[in-house]
Amino acid sequence: MSTPGSGSALPASEERTWAMLAHVGVFIAAWFAMGFLCPLIIWLLFRGRSEFVRKNAVESLNFQISLLIYTAIAVVLVLITFGLGVLIIVPLIVIGAVAAVVVIVLATIAASSGQDYRYPLTIRFVR
To answer: Which InterPro entries match (predicted)?
Structure first.
């Protein structure tokens, strides 16, 4: 009986596809406020079959977890300032959201080219 993530190695043609999906798939999962699900599932399924896919999925997963933590901190700051923090937090969230989209696109392009990408300001929980 095989365990998740075990099995034969992925063909090179599929490696780039799954690595790209680990990054760009967060846009779909983000509609449900769970952007981390796509890279998590890809990491769990393919970590033993492709080092390239594993690295890309882990990087994307760590970035999504970091974004979730930064968002939680922003919400707490707004709450403890009784809403006055909104004047600072909302512009930062807009800038952060645009920056997140840009780096996700850059990571997807890097994965499609067979290159690794390191997201900025990422806390690396999963290795």
So the answer is: MamF_MmsF
What is the signed CA dihedral for 49, 8, 25, 29, rounded to 10 degrees?
-90
> Rounded distance, CA 47 to CA 4, Å?
9
Q: How far is CA 83 from CA 11, 76, 90, in A?
A: 52, 10, 11
Please report whether residue 79 resides in a domain.
yes
Count: domains in the chain: 1
Compute CA 87 distance to the chain's CA centroid, rounded to the nearest angstrom: 27
Rounded to two decimals, what is the model's pTM?
A: 0.84
The answer to whether residue 30 is domain-embedded is: yes
Q: How far apart are CA 53 and CA 20, in angstroms?
A: 8
Q: At 58, list the tokens.
A: 């882990």
Q: Which two tokens stand for residue 25?
A: 């798939």
